[in-house]
Design brief:
By secondary structure, the chain is mainly beta. The protein has no helices and 11 strands. Strands 2, 4, 5, 6, 9, 10 and 11 form a 7-stranded mixed β-sheet that branches. It has a 4-stranded antiparallel β-sheet with strand order 1-3-8-7, with no helix packed on it. The chain is globular. The model has no long low-confidence stretch (mean pLDDT 95).
């Protein structure tokens, strides 16, 4: 059974930081490209960042470049998203995704509020 389980969300003040984790099982994480996507209230899915298995290159949406850092630990089959300098508009449900063949986690809520 394929599982992607996000954790690390919560309520944080503007300017704060959170580190999201996505623990996976049931597929070969080490050879899979992985992404983080979010959905803000009332909006569609927004791609945030991707990391590839071979070269570990990372790619970011312009809106989060320099603010978010994506990493992976293949030994733990876990994907991370370090989020710094959080803003009110970062409030969303954050999902990890393995694009091929399109596995999704259940999401973790991040709320930035003063």
């Amino acid at each position: 059974e394929v599982q992607l389980v996000e954790s690390g969300g919560g309520v944080v003040q503007p300017g704060g930081s959170l580190r999201l984790s996505c623990t996976t099982s049931g597929f070969t994480f080490s050879t899979s490209a992985m992404t983080w996507v979010r959905q803000a209230p009332g909006k569609g899915l927004q791609w945030l960042a991707s990391i590839y298995n071979k070269n570990r290159n990372t790619y970011y949406a312009d809106s989060v470049k320099g603010q978010f850092t994506l990493s992976r630990d293949n030994a733990k089959s876990t994907l991370y998203l370090q989020m710094n300098s959080l803003k009110l508009e970062d409030t969303a449900v954050y999902y990890c995704n393995a694009p091929t063949p399109n596995y999704w986690g259940q999401g973790t809520q991040v709320t930035v509020s003063s």
